[in-house]
Amino acid sequence: MEIEKEVKKMTLGHEFGAGAACLKCKDKCEGFELHFWRKICRNCKCGLAEHNVQMNSEENKKVGKLFEDTKYTGLIAKLKTDGVPTYRGNAVTITLGGPATAHTVLPGTAHTVFPASANASVPHTTTAAAGSVPPVAASGGTASSGVQATSGSTAPGAVQARPAGVTPVKANAASVSVGSTTANVVPVTKGTPLKSVTYEWAPPVANKYVAVRYIELLPPEKRPVAGTEGAAYRRQQMARQLPEHDQDPDKCHELSPAEVKKMQQFVRKYKDEALGVGDVRLPEEMALVQAAAAAAAGEGGPGAAGGAKTAGPGAVGPKGTAGAGGAGSMSAGGAVGTTATAGAMAAPGALLQNFSCRHCNQPMRVGDPAVYAERAGYDKLWHPACFVCCTCDELLVDMIYFWKRGKLYCGRHYGDSEKPRCGGCDELIFSNEYTQAEGQNWHLKHFCCFDCDLVLAGETYVMEQDKPVCTPCYMKNYAVKCSGCGEAVDPEAQRVSYGEHHWHAAPQCFKCSGCAKVLMGQRFMAAQGRLFCSVECKKNAPA
Asked: Most Cβ neighbours (<10 Å): which of 10, 229, 365, 369?
């Protein structure tokens, strides 16, 4: 009975997604049927990610296992039923501009978001459209409609002045949006429609405006808005960048005990030395945190922090407000005047010359969030759209990265940089012996025909779309047909090709359709797949 239960369990696991339509091949695929070790569909040769399979629960379990026994266990939870770690994913619905908000700004204007804390000295900036930052009034000047612009010379410890006409907000109220280039601030009535957007993933920050601005800075086709191509892109990259068979021996095909041990050691090593999750912060706030930490450690010097007592990221300031790792705003008691933070109080949208992206070397803008990687050090930062794998140049899905020798990798290409990957099963190779052929690496048992799985050691084969195919399968499924005799052309046989038509290079096939003259080495003309030696033969040939 126990054996029957185990067999049933294995069968159900193998048939996950069975029959799902292929999004790439459409009607050409009869439905997903998993190959037992290639991890592709038997019918169309596409992967599971290319099929219409809802993978949320499976993907969350995979990433949960990746974060298990790491410092990122806060991102996972244990399922009550079987104790399997599962990734939280941080799918959220964010609502902006509702009755809880004191004021709103007319569309099309850049605006500063004052955090809920009345003590916050660094404003958050967001714009109506990603990448479009309208010019703002110069520091120390006056805005167009009588709004006083923020001065860049705020005295240490002083609370930043609030623009004219802005109603103070209680500490537990929602953030307030105020135009930095216009004073068209109007009250929000109860009838004002709410704008709710559901994201399949958003950065786990307390300030929702920072999260929304982060997503706005991504390419439109890669924003993980539910039901869009950006959400589909995220799901595909989750499967591509974080293969479950790179971390779980149980997902691999017939590993020996020695290979299992090597793989476990490999996984433990990259969890300890390379794996990380990006941290979204405002550069100007990070500068304040770092300066305050340096001052607290006695390393700030005369111009560091004005008596600030705050520690590193996520610490609690002297006024009780959270640091950058907490609520996303800084305490006013830690205002600084160092060179590193001189641009932190600049007008929203202005360039922060002291903060440049490590990927593109372009400066950040005031109010725009950046991505930090702890393993790289908090002196390095990236634009949200620049936090990509150094090999495939794709966005690092959910900001999950692997740091190696000064470079960011996705999980797949980090694995490729450490171990050879089998071209047959897509698994990393942990055995001492393997085959190298056609510019790829292969497990000895996996250098097989892509169609029938015949082991090709000592056999002739043909490479078809970078996959080895035995001669019988090639003749049956891929060989071109001779326009003369109608038979398949052997891959090793000589042939003549003209446009989309092919002939055996033999007298019985490559001849005039009119007079049967052999055309090998002769001038000829072709029409509708037929050969002629002259215009006369073509005219006299039956239709």
From this structure: 369
Q: What is the pLDDT of residue 182?
A: 31
- Residue count of the chain: 543
| Tokens matching residue 52 | 């219409």
Distance, CA of 483 to CA of 495 (rounded, Å)? 11
Contact 60, 234 (CB under 8 A): no
**Is 165 within 8 Å of 143 (Cβ atoms)?**
no
Cα 235 to its chain centre, rounded Å, is 9
* pLDDT of amino acid 542: 75
Contact 317, 331 (CB under 8 A): yes
Q: 22 by DSSP, 3-state: which?
A: strand
| Contact status, residue 488 vs residue 509, Cβ threshold 8 Å | no
CB 303 within 8 Å of CB 289: no
* Model pLDDT, residue 350: 66
Instruction: Write down the pLDDT at residue 314.
Output: 39
Helix H, strand E, coil C: the string for 500-529 is: CEEEECCCCCCECCCCCCECCCCCCEEECC
What is d(CA 34, CA 44) in angstroms, rounded to the nearest whole number? 10
pLDDT at res. 529: 78
Asked if 491 and 479 touch (Cβ cutoff 8 Å), the reply is: yes
Kindly tell me the burial class for residue 457, based on how many C-beta atoms sit within 10 Å of its own C-beta (0-12, 13-18, 19 or more). Answer: exposed
Q: What is the CA radius of gyration of the chain?
A: 32
Instruction: Compute the half-sphere exposure of residue 51: CA atoms within 13 Å on the CB side of its CA.
Output: 25
Largest CA distance in the chain: 103
Q: What is the dihedral of CA 37, 42, 47, 51, to 10 degrees?
A: -140
Backbone torsions φ then ψ of 126, nearest 5 degrees:
-140, 160
Q: Which amino acid is at 164?
A: A
Structure tokens at 244: 């479950």
Q: What is the mean pLDDT of each run of 10 residues along the chain (543 residues)?
A: 39 57 81 78 77 71 86 72 73 69 32 35 36 35 34 38 37 33 42 79 91 95 94 91 93 92 96 95 88 77 38 36 35 34 51 85 92 95 97 97 97 97 94 90 92 88 90 92 90 87 90 87 84 86 72
205/101 Cα distance (integer angstroms): 19
Instruction: Give the DSSP per-residue string, 379-425.
Output: T--B-GGG-B-TTT--B-GGGEEEEETTEEE-HHHHHHHHS-BBTTT
Q: CB of 368 within 8 A of CB of 280?
A: no
CA distances from 173 to 98, 99, 176, 281 (A): 12, 11, 9, 22
* Distance, C-alpha 156 to centroid of its chain: 41
State if pTM tops 0.70.
no
